[in-house]
Every structure is written in C-alpha cells, then in structure tokens.
Design a protein that fits this description.
- By secondary structure, the protein is an alpha/beta fold.
- The chain folds into two domains: about 140 residues, 3-Layer(aba) Sandwich (Rossmann fold), CATH 3.40.50; about 60 residues, DNA polymerase, domain 1, CATH 1.10.150.
- Helices cover about 45% and strands about 15% of the residues.
- The protein has a six-stranded parallel β-sheet with strand order 5-4-1-6-7-8, sandwiched between helices. The chain has a two-stranded antiparallel sheet with strand order 2-3.
- Helix 8 links the parallel strand 6 and strand 7.
- The longest helix is centred in the middle third of the chain and has 15 residues.
- The protein is globular.
C-alpha cells in the first residue's frame, strides 16, 4: 500500500517517538560522541547512529564501545543526555495536529519507545504531546523493549483497548517489526533515517513521506 491510499480510522494509536513525532538527532548524536570519546574511543560515525535509532540505547552504544565498558557508557549517557536533550529538538510537522485530531475523535493513544522512559515523558511534556497522550512508556519502565510483543501487549493493556483496529505509527524497520510481532498494522513515515520504499519493503502496511501526508490519508 502506498501513501496515496485511504486508511480506515484506527480504534487506538501507538506512537513511536524519535524520528516519528520528533527529531532529536542532534542532541542524541552529540551525547554519543561525548560519551564514546570520553571512554577513549574514536568519535562514532553519525550515519551509524542515525540508522540505529529506534532500538535500545545499549544496542547503539555496543557499536562503539566494548562489552566491559557498556555499563559505564550507559550511565554516562543517561547522566549527560538530560542536560542537552532539548538542544535542536524539532517537533515534526503535523505531529500535534494529528495527535489532537485523534484526541478529538476519542481515539486512545500511547507513546511507546526505546528511549529511556523518564526522558521520554519529559520530552512529551516539553513538546505538548502529554496534553492529549497520557500513556508514555519507555525503556526501563518494563523488562521489555521493542520489538518484543510483550511490551506492545503491555502498552495496549495500559490503554484498556484490544488489538483489533489498533495501529502503530513509526519511522523505522524496528517499528514495522514491532507491529508485525504483535499482529498490528504499521503506518510508517519516512521522517527518520529510512525512506518510504525501505519501510514498505520491511513490511509496513502503508508508508508516507510525512505526518501531514498521513493525516490526509485518514480524511
């Protein structure tokens, strides 16, 4: 299905955060660079960081530091990132409009992300998402991370809805895999590091160039 197809109104929406609702790449890349170089390693490749976003922070960090330094690197990242996380942050065009439109229709929504849970909730408040979306679950809030279907089930249960008609909106193959593992449709947006054709090839139910384009598809 391409971006030109009309979509049925979902009964509930599960939102990814990074790359989908926001672009926080500048702060994320800066934090990885500072942590990795402070541990004595070369500055990490920016492209590798971008392509890895959507997975847990530990998976990205493991690309640049050895196993024995992982705990120290994770602690350093979580200490540093809150200080700089709003630097260069951009809310993607159409994000607030689509969130509010779903809210006006009474459609339950949740944010679930592999971003550190407390950080994700701070970002949600800062960007205004939390005014409409009251469920925001991230890494360390549970024992699971995306694409584990147990996490998706947990988020759906937290909303008090069922799987039927629930959709996931995300920007990465990880989001597509997450939706597929839980038996959900994934409406993908090419607002992160992955193009529309790549997302469709990964198995997205539909893919769009922007959230504005996705919003029009629900009209």
């Amino acid at each position: 299905m391409s971006g030109s197809a009309a979509l049925p109104t979902p009964s509930a929406v599960l939102w990814d955060m990074d790359g989908t609702l926001i672009d926080q790449t500048a702060g994320i890349i800066r934090c990885y660079r500072e942590v990795v170089t402070a541990l004595g390693h070369p500055a990490p490749d920016e492209g590798l960081i971008r392509r890895s976003l959507g997975g847990p922070m530990g998976e990205t960090m493991a690309l640049f530091v050895p196993r024995e330094q992982m705990d120290a690197a994770a602690r350093a990242f979580r200490e540093r990132f809150p200080r700089i996380m709003f630097d260069g942050l951009v809310v993607h065009a159409g994000a607030l409009e689509l969130i509010r439109e779903f809210g006006d229709r009474g459609i339950p929504q949740a944010i679930f992300t592999n971003k550190h849970g407390p950080t994700a909730r701070e970002v949600s408040r800062h960007c205004g998402f939390s005014q409409t979306i009251h469920v925001c679950i991230g890494n360390t809030d549970t024992e699971w991370s995306k694409p584990d279907p147990e996490l998706t089930r947990h988020v759906i249960d937290s909303l008090g809805v069922g799987r039927e008609g629930t959709v996931l909106i995300g920007d990465s193959p990880t989001d597509v895999e997450t939706a597929g593992a839980a038996g959900l449709a994934c409406y993908a947006v090419a607002t992160g590091a992955h193009g529309r054709e790549e997302l469709l090839a990964a198995g997205a139910s539909a893919a769009f160039d922007s959230l504005t384009e996705l919003r029009r598809a629900f009209s």
